[in-house]
Design goal:
Elements: E1 8-16, E2 19-27, E3 66-67, E4 76-80, E5 83-87, H1 93-106, H2 115-127, E6 130-136, H3 147-156, E7 163-165, H4 170-190, H5 192-195, H6 202-212, H7 227-246, H8 250-253, H9 265-271, H10 273-282, H11 292-295
Parallel strand pairs: 5-6, 6-7
Antiparallel strand pairs: 1-2, 3-4, 4-5
Helix pairs in contact: 2-4, 4-7, 9-10
Length: about 300
């Protein structure tokens, strides 16, 4: 897609017969006049507890790429900090390793780190068997014979989005979809009062505020028919936006156009001070912005 023509791009998760359908959609021109009002119902549809999971003694370990038939139709995996990346052979090992390194750097330990809370989050990522599928390019389609395997993966693992290699805005693509899993699973179960995908969390109330003030246009999500799933996606995307923006990644790594109108950390502080405070009060003790050195490797 030509970025000059892109008004808003999002990823919708629709469940039909327990199968996730990732639909990338394009809006040309203005959105509808009436803003969607986020409802009280929130469905944690993409999270599934796997009681058989083994939590390693080293929660921070980054393994090596392993060929496996454990996640058909995917053929290889890489586990880092409680997140298992899975891919088919068309995804390069180099890309897979760089995504893993990005995750590892997000869980760096520094003087502000609350290691007990960080480790609790990592344990939750393992407990809910967090898996991110990697695809090459925007065509992530499966052969009809593989669809039942894909359905089974989603029934057994927590899969809240995908990452694509070789697409525009590669840093946004990687950081956004890692954060979706960290917030939907890790932060939800670790800090539910602040980051919970519920109608009682600070995140929920601050998302409503941003929508009402016109900084976060969620009209594109009306394509999701199920209200609870739609609201989960709206919260998930807002959590990503305020963290990504507070890390000052948008000016340097895009996107230029989106449903979110704020570009910098200082702008976030000035326009949505409470959302800025949520990030500053809770994120630095758990998460770090990946280094520019690592992020620059995603560009050709």
């Amino acid at each position: 897609m030509d970025s000059n023509d892109r008004i808003a791009v999002g990823t919708i998760f629709k469940i039909g017969k327990n199968l996730f359908h990732f639909t990338v959609f394009l809006f040309i021109g203005s959105c509808s006049q009436d803003q969607i009002v986020i409802g009280e119902e929130v469905t944690l549809d993409c999270v599934h507890q796997n009681t058989s999971v083994t939590i390693p003694s080293d929660l921070y370990e980054m393994g090596s790429i392993i060929q496996t038939d454990e996640y058909p139709p995917f053929t290889k995996k890489l586990t880092v900090c409680g997140i298992t990346l899975i891919a088919r052979d068309d995804v390069s090992d180099v890309f897979m390793i760089r995504v893993g390194q990005t995750i590892s750097e997000m869980f760096s330990i520094h003087e502000e780190t609350d290691t007990l809370k960080q480790q609790k989050l990592l344990k939750n990522l393992y407990t809910y068997h967090t898996v991110i599928p990697l695809f090459y390019g925007e065509d992530w389609s499966f052969h009809p014979d593989e669809e039942s395997d894909w359905e089974e993966l989603n029934n057994r693992h927590s899969i809240c989005d995908i990452i694509m290699e070789g697409v525009p805005n590669p840093v946004m693509e990687v950081v956004e979809h890692i954060l979706h899993h960290i917030t939907d699973i890790g932060l939800h179960f670790t800090d539910i009062d602040n980051w919970g995908l519920t109608n009682a969390s600070r995140l929920f109330n601050l998302t409503k505020e941003a929508i009402e003030l016109g900084y976060y246009n969620v009209n594109q999500y009306e394509e999701i028919n199920e209200a609870g799933i739609r609201n989960r996606v709206i919260l998930q995307e807002y959590a990503y936006w305020i963290i990504y923006t507070s890390w000052n990644l948008r000016n340097s790594h895009g996107p230029d156009h989106s449903e979110w109108s704020i570009f910098t950390s200082s702008e976030l502080e000035n326009k949505l001070k409470s959302s800025y405070q949520l990030v500053q009060e809770t994120v630095p003790s758990i998460l770090s912005c990946p280094s520019e050195q690592t992020l620059s490797l995603f560009y050709p």
